[in-house]
Structures
1.
Amino acid sequence: MAGNSEIVATFLMVAISSYLIWTILSIRQRRLRFAEEGGDYYSGDAKEPEALKKPDQEALEQMDELLEQAGFYMPDE
């Protein structure tokens, strides 16, 4: 009797594994097709790089707050 349950369990595991592999491959194919069609291209470049070179006072204060929340603290010199 244990032989039958092992065969059924093995069959179920093979079926589930096959389904998961098929799902992964279909997602991969969709992503490849999307990339070939010229989908969203993300270069990582800033839209306005000049604006990032000179941060304003509000941005510096927000950065200080974020660093303090993260546990980084530099005493004023």
2.
Amino acid sequence: MPTPIGLFDSFDNLDQLSLEAIAAWLKPVPQLDYLEDYLANRILYPQTIPQTERDMQIDLAILREALKASSPKPGENPFLNVALRKLLIPAKLLNFVPDLASLTWAFIDAFFLDHQRKEWVEDLWTIVLMDDIDEVVGSVMLPHFDNTGGVMRVILMNKNYEIRKGNLMLIPCPRERCEIAYKLMAGKVLGKTENAIEVYGGKLGLVVDGRGA
């Protein structure tokens, strides 16, 4: 009989996660006693499929914290290829999360929300869905704004988009490669305030995350 596969079967650290940290991702914030029982059930039955939207949100909150704790040593994270700047998402997780955008958002929150870049090239990552055959599904761009009034304007496929500091936006880009032009006010991305570049697209598209520093 095949081993059951679940959202959390790749993690052996669930019992070490902070209930307060999990609760911080949720609105309204649940009682910690309830969350403790919920997490215990997920540890015992990792293959369980969430039955309600609230269950799904709790599962994604747990996933965020499990991902954050998944790399005990620098360079050993199974979900990040730092050298190639790839975000690696197991395709099997889509059996338990309703859509690719929600799943990717959880990964971005876990790895990039408080990301302290060492080089400007770390402002752009390729998103890869890992399966028997890996699939590039898009990119994530991390602009850095100088103040609360920072704005990034993006042109992609003749459409204009505006991302303000503190916001996250998903921009459709179904092609394998997409050319974008961008301009920032009070900020930079890839070391520049203005540029035109190619990024990977796919079934997800381009995620621009302006919530960081």
3.
Amino acid sequence: MGLSCKRWASACAFFAFGVLCLPFMSSAQSVDQTAGTQEDRVRYFYLLHDNDIPPYWRSPVKVGFHDESGNSSKVLERAKLFVEFYAMASANELILSGNDEISTSDDYSFGLVVADFTPKGEFMDPGLRQRLEGLWPNTPLFEALHQRESRVSVGNARDGDDCLIFPSGSHIEGKNSRFEVNSVVILAHTRLSEDQRLLCFKNKTALAFGLGTSTFDFEKNLNETDLRRFYYGFFPTFLEVSGTCRTTEFDHVLACIHRILEHRYSDLLKVGIRNS
């Protein structure tokens, strides 16, 4: 806690720069493509591509899970809390889920699964899909089970087969085009360690809320301190600000996000300089 005021000011400046540019994050965009206004940088952070505003959830976020490893209950409980944390940060309506894996509640929208699977092209392993269909037959998750996977690439590095996400939703065209998420299923392979399973769920949960994560395969090599900065610092800040902007400035969400972040952290920077 012995950080000097000047060092604190530098840290604030680094944070403000990081949340606006985040070179560590990407969606396979080149340096030339990401150059431009601050609003452009916010856009790429949210993986918006041609959309005008960040994606958001059409369904309440309620978590259901399924474990075929027999030893992932603690991981799944922690991952569930993480999903709910992101739902609250993004100002999405939140319904707390129960812990009963065999529940067929009709409003599960966020599925966390640990299983042994082999992807079938871009679709879910047919055997696993059939088992999950029986588990979640009348839920928003049923739609996600039949969607193509959304796999992240950074440069020429494409994520592997151990951690996959299957989102369902729709693109809303018009003045404020966006992607509205209905449900998501995330798969973590049983061959992953407990820590890697939890990281898989964190990585794809961030993606489910529109955040431009790096690949899971890349993040496996990062230390815990670096990961915490992103998952418990940068990402929730963006979600909280975007929720506010979507409510107050729906026609100018990205500009609003940039303005709030710049104002919030430039004020911190000024305080640090004044007291140094």
